[in-house]
């Protein structure tokens, strides 16, 4: 419907012959005299880079020869024909430090390789209280954006039938406007095999959002899957035109790895298409006598709280109920390309107010759809907003 990983810093071998200077060794830049017992951190990762690769120190003294001679114990220099003395304690300590640094570099490199894929950090990743993004029931405030590898330039999703190694394959014929039909589709992996394992995210393995390309007729549905991986659901497209269907899911690979993705495909209901203009921006919406207001101004690349307050037809605070594991669901679609964001609030007590943290993937006009449940009935409040 959109992680950072931390790795414990491995401890290197303890130094011998006295304590080493206590300095922090950073990835790629171990300082002179760094602690030989500390490996460089392996959690400094970025997209497309190998984590934990430390560069050897470029200023490591190893007792190199002075011009015309070499260093003796006690710091004296022997000239040609002079006899040498055994290494003193300082020289032995230096050798241990250098050896420890080399071992720390090798250990850090190996752990970095073993740590797996680099963390995907995008500008549109929403900030949460915990700082991480997981896909288990009861997940805190987060949004689904470009983490699935979508090719869009600003991390909006749903713009392609393929993303993150998965492809949406619809089946069936055209729809007739105003008549009940059926939408059927499969999600296939990179080997073109139907996917049959999906994580349960907010009480459902698959979230389907359908909207006409003028952003009217919003529907949030939950299809069912057959044993062969075919999803199906009854679907009515009320008006003629081109509609966009989004599949929001988290696939589970054979090795247990979970990949969230949002894929999109167009559906057609033949007939005369008369697109409606987008309503003017407003912070208040009414649906079935309920009044919904929100506070907050979304910004590009920054997580901003949006606080929605729901009042019943009598003007009293509405008693929001949990629906799909949360007290509200928010979908935002961008006008034009229909870039998709699906946002959930963090867990909290049942009140008339629900807060979402939203990061706009780019400027433009958006249509927001807030699903909320009162007395067992789910309603959708719609808003237009402009992000500059």
Textual characterization of the structure:
A five-stranded antiparallel beta sheet has the order 3-17-16-19-20, with no helix packed on it. The protein folds into three domains: 3-121, no CATH class; 142-269, Macroglobulin (MG2) domain (Immunoglobulin-like), CATH 2.60.40.1930; 284-387, Sandwich (Immunoglobulin-like), CATH 2.60.40.10. The radius of gyration is 29 Å and the shape is globular. The chain has one helix spanning 89-114; strands at residues 70-71, 77-78, 142-144, 162-163, 166-171, 180-188, 206-212, 219-221, 224-225, 230-236, 241-252, 258-269, 284-287, 290-295, 304-311, 329-334, 340-344, 353-358, 364-374, 377-387. The two termini are 24 Å apart. The chain has one helix and 20 strands. Helices cover 7% and strands 32% of the residues. It is mainly β and 388 residues long. Keywords: Membrane, Transmembrane, Transmembrane helix. Residues 1-84, 131-157 are annotated as: Disordered. The chain crosses the membrane at residues 94-112.
> What would you give as the CATH superfamily of the largest domain?
Macroglobulin (MG2) domain
**By helix and strand content, what is the structural category?**
mainly beta
Query: Which series of helices and strands comes N to C?
Result: EEHEEEEEEEEEEEEEEEEEE
CATH class of the largest domain: Mainly Beta
The helix tally amounts to 1
Percent helix, as a range, is: under 10%
CATH architecture of the largest domain: Sandwich
Keywords: Membrane, Transmembrane, Transmembrane helix
Protein name: Secreted protein
């Amino acid at each position: 419907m959109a992680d950072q990983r931390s790795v414990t810093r491995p401890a290197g071998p303890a130094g011998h012959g006295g304590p080493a200077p206590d300095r922090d060794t950073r990835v790629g830049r171990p300082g002179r005299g760094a602690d030989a017992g500390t490996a460089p951190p392996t959690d400094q990762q970025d997209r497309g880079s190998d984590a934990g690769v430390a560069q050897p120190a470029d200023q490591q003294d190893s007792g190199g020869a002075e011009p015309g001679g070499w260093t003796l114990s006690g710091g004296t220099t022997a000239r040609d024909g002079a006899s040498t003395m055994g290494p003193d304690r300082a020289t032995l300590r230096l050798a241990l430090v250098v050896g420890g640094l080399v071992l720390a570099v090798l250990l850090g490199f190996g752990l970095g390789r073993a740590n797996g894929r680099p963390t995907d950090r995008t500008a549109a990743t929403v900030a949460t209280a915990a700082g991480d993004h997981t896909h288990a029931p009861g997940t805190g405030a987060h949004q689904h954006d470009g983490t699935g590898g979508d090719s869009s330039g600003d991390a909006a999703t749903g713009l392609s039938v393929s993303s993150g190694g998965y492809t949406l394959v619809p089946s069936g014929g055209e729809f007739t406007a105003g008549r009940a039909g059926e939408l059927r589709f499969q999600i296939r992996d990179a080997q073109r095999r139907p996917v049959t394992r999906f994580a349960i995210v907010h009480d459902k393995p698959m979230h389907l959002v359908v909207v006409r390309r003028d952003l009217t007729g919003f529907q949030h549905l939950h299809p069912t899957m057959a044993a062969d991986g075919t999803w199906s659901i009854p679907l009515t497209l009320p008006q003629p035109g081109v509609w966009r269907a989004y599949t929001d899911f988290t696939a589970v690979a054979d090795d247990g790895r979970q990949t969230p993705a949002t894929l999109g495909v167009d559906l057609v209901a033949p007939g005369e298409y008369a697109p409606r203009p987008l309503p003017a921006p407003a912070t208040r919406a009414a649906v079935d006598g309920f009044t919904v207001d929100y506070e907050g101004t979304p910004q590009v690349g920054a997580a901003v709280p949006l606080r929605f307050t729901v009042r019943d037809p009598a003007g009293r605070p509405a008693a929001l109920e949990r629906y799909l594991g949360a007290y509200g669901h928010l979908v935002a679609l961008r006008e034009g390309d229909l870039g998709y964001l699906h946002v959930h609030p963090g867990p909290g007590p049942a009140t008339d107010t629900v807060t979402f943290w939203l990061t706009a993937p780019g400027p433009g006009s958006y249509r927001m759809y807030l699903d909320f449940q009162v007395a067992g009935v789910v309603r959708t409040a719609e808003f237009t907003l402009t992000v500059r």
